[in-house]
Write a structure and sequence with these properties.
mainly alpha, 7 helices
């Protein structure tokens, strides 16, 4: 009788073990599926954000980063084709999407400073001769939203609008026949590359007429 009870206990324990194992497998699959789902969603948002930034501002990612994005998309498709998300695959894709996002944001930061810094400096340079000075600040503040883009469409839209408003402000000054020469000089001033050689008589006359001579500093490199 004791043997029978022992056998029944062993069988019961095996059943419990199998149930626990099955339950753990289900939880693991659910965890892997959730990771995979999040990766696919993040990847979609990331690709869409990059596409929009390219069409709106001309931003492009490097070839190396582009290949990583394509590789991640292929891994996603392969996982779907197999119909089962392995734990190793889910973890790999999670790390890969983090690495790709970090790379894109660094490339965006370089692009942003290349485009925005000069434009903002230009606005500050001409602020003293703009009829409605508050417009300069509005445009500058909108452009600065791009510094914290983080794949957000709203920040991209504000930066795009700020850059357009900046160009409108600059163009509204009406530099006349010497416009290109003066504009080129102001761009050099804004980027810190202007020298005495760039200061022609036409530019000097324009600076005097607009009371800007005291707003420009001369220094040695």
């Amino acid at each position: 009788m004791l043997v029978d009870l022992l056998d029944k206990s062993i069988i019961a324990m095996k059943e419990i073990y199998e149930l626990e194992k099955s339950s753990n497998d289900v939880r693991k699959r659910e965890k892997n599926d959730k990771i995979f789902s999040n990766v696919v969603n993040e990847n979609h948002l990331m690709v869409q954000a990059v596409t929009n930034s390219m069409s709106q501002l001309g931003f492009t990612i490097s070839q190396e980063t582009r290949e990583k994005v394509i590789g991640l998309l292929k891994s996603s498709n392969d996982a779907v084709s197999r119909g089962l998300i392995q734990e190793s695959t889910a973890n790999y894709m999670q790390k890969e999407v983090f690495t790709i996002k970090k790379a894109i944001l660094q490339e965006w930061s370089d692009y942003y400073h290349r485009v925005a810094d000069q434009k903002i400096n230009m606005l500050q340079t001409i602020k003293g001769i703009v009829p409605e000075r508050e417009k300069v600040d509005y445009a500058s503040n909108k452009i600065k939203y791009g510094a914290s883009w983080e794949f957000k469409q709203d920040n991209l839209d504000k930066m795009t609008k700020g850059l357009l408003e900046a160009d409108e402000i600059i163009n509204s000054l009406g530099f006349g026949d010497d416009g290109l020469e003066i504009l080129d000089f102001l761009k050099k001033v804004a980027s810190g590359k202007a020298s005495v050689h760039d200061l022609t008589s036409d530019i000097l006359n324009w600076l005097i007429e607009n009371n800007m001579t005291s707003k420009l500093a001369v220094s040695f490199k």
